[in-house]
Amino acid sequence: MVEQLCEALGMCPNHTRRLLHDAPYYIPSTVYRYVTATASARLFSRRPPGRCPACLNAEWALGQVSSVILESLGVPRVTEAFRLAGGFCLPHLLDALPRLGTAEALVAVEVCLNASGEQPPSVATEAGADRDAPLRGGLRERLPLEPGGDETTLGRLRARMEVDACPLCLAAAQAERCYLTWAIAKRAHEARELARDLVTLCPRHTHDLFELDREAGAWVVDLKREFWLRELRALTARLHALPPASFGERLRQIPRMWHKIRQSEVRQIRPRSRWRAIKRTARELLHNQRRAREDAVRRLLVPRECPACRAVQAVERQQQALLGEALSDRETLTRYENSHGVCLYHLRSFGVVPEPVSALAATRLAVLNWELVETGRKRNWIYRHESGGSEASAWLRAPALLDGRTFLGGPATRP
Predict the structure, then answer these.
(1) What percent of the chain stands above pLDDT 90?
(2) Taking 80 as the threshold, does the pLDDT of residue 241 lie above it?
(3) Is the dihedral of CA 88, 56, 68, 300 positive or negative?
(4) Residue 22 pLDDT more than 80?
(5) Res 266 pLDDT > 50
(6) Which of 354, 317, 344, 319 lies closest to 154 in space, CA to CA?
(7) What residues have CB less than 8 Å from 361, skipping those under 6 apart?
(8) Rounded Cα–Cα distance for residues 16 and 30 (Å)
(9) Where along the chain do its domains lie?
(10) Sign of the four-CA dihedral 138, 144, 150, 154
């Protein structure tokens, strides 16, 4: 497990927050001793880190459960139990549709439609479960305020460097909070115009909006519910219009197939090639249903950009470009060298890493690793007479240096 964590340079922000919230301090303190040593050794490597082992385990478990359900939907008792349970939430339904046959897809969609008609809309149904949302909400409340509008561009950048956090993560988190609070305020006056944007909010930002303002969150959930009900009804109509899938029903398609063959140029082909042409025509008819189903599902799953994600990514790119240019300013460089510096997540996103950025990251990683080793040493019984120092908080600062998104761009603090 430790090897997987080192390969991934820790866990994703969601699972890291859960670890810091639930586990006693000595567990992350021990684990990050090895992770920071690996990160320091691979600081200048272009090899990307592995995926979060907790995410991989969760995806495997979800895949096992969903595959059993999806493969059994044709069994009457399973179908009835699936109906009684209310089916999938919307994100899991959309994820499952490409793997379902026509009959199973109709069952899954119709159960979802029936459940939506019988139950009041909820954020869990429309955006899935999100245990991390309350932790993000608490961290968002602690975020520092944005620099004042009367500051110069470099002044605002230097103001972010005064916070003990990655300045790029902080700028992205402030932009995220700015968009969500703007949407809540604008809803009171321009709800119709805003609805076109907020209906495509991703599940994460739907939960975040709900945490910030329950009334506005419930309004967005209702918008998303109405939008997806229309989309799923349209999908159901398209699926019902598809050619039948069972073998018996396909046999009944033989007259139609024969008519198509007679209308084609098969009769004009030489006798030796005629049989191959007949087989090709039959294969096309039998495969039309699968292609039509895939086309219908593809129309439903067309990518829809989340406006909050778009706003955050735009600010993140701009602030990274600004930081790269601003380090040539002596005052900004001095401030940066005495700041937290960018986290390793953003360090890897630089095309060419500026020398002050890489130098500060290397120093901070080396010192942080020493602090974690020192914390482990002082926990030894034979050194119990020594008092703890600032290294006692290294287990919180380690995830902030590896990926500042863990604390939503704010200073390291227990979620």
Answers:
(1) 52
(2) no
(3) positive
(4) yes
(5) no
(6) 319
(7) 43, 341, 342, 344, 347, 401
(8) 14
(9) 242-300
(10) negative
Average pLDDT, whole number, for the chain?
A: 86
Q: From CA 356, how far away is CA 358, in angstroms rounded?
A: 6
SS3 232: helix
Number of Cβ within a 10 Å radius of residue 49: 19
DSSP string, 116-175: HHHS---HHHHH---TTHHHHHHHHHTSPPPPPTTS-HHHHHHHHHTSSS-HHHHHHHHH
Whether residue 319 contacts residue 168, with contact meaning beta carbons closer than 8 Å, is answered with yes
Provide the token pair at 339. 């700041």
Contact 170, 163 (CB under 8 A): yes
Q: Dig out the tokens for 356 from the structure.
A: 């002050």
**DSSP reduced 3-state for 371:** helix
Classify residue 120 as left (phi > 0), alpha (psi -120 to 50) or beta: beta
Q: What is the pLDDT of residues 27-57, one digit of tens each?
A: 999 999 999 999 999 988 888 899 999 999 9
First to last CA, the chain: 24
Nearest one of 124, 119, 123 to 84, comparing CA atoms:
119
Which residues 6+ apart lie within 8 Å of 286 measured at CB? 250
Amino acid 281: pLDDT? 61
Residue type, 228: W
* Segment 130-140, tens digit of pLDDT: 999 999 999 99
Range of weakest confidence among 110-114, 202-206, 295-299: 295-299
Q: Is 154 exposed, middle or buried, given 0-12, 13-18 or 19+ CB atoms closer than 10 A?
A: middle
In this structure, of 69-78, 127-136, 178-187, the range with the lowest mean pLDDT score is 69-78
* Rg (the chain; Cα; Å): 28
Dist CA 42 CA 230 (whole Å): 50
Residue where the block lists tokens 């890897």: 348
Instruction: Single out the residue of 324, 321, 319 nearest to residue 354, CA to CA.
Output: 324
The CA distance from 246 to 253, in Å, is: 11
| Residues 33, 268: Cα–Cα separation, whole Å | 77
Helix axes 13-22, 26-41, angle to 10 degrees: 150
Cβ pair 114, 93 in contact under 8 A: no
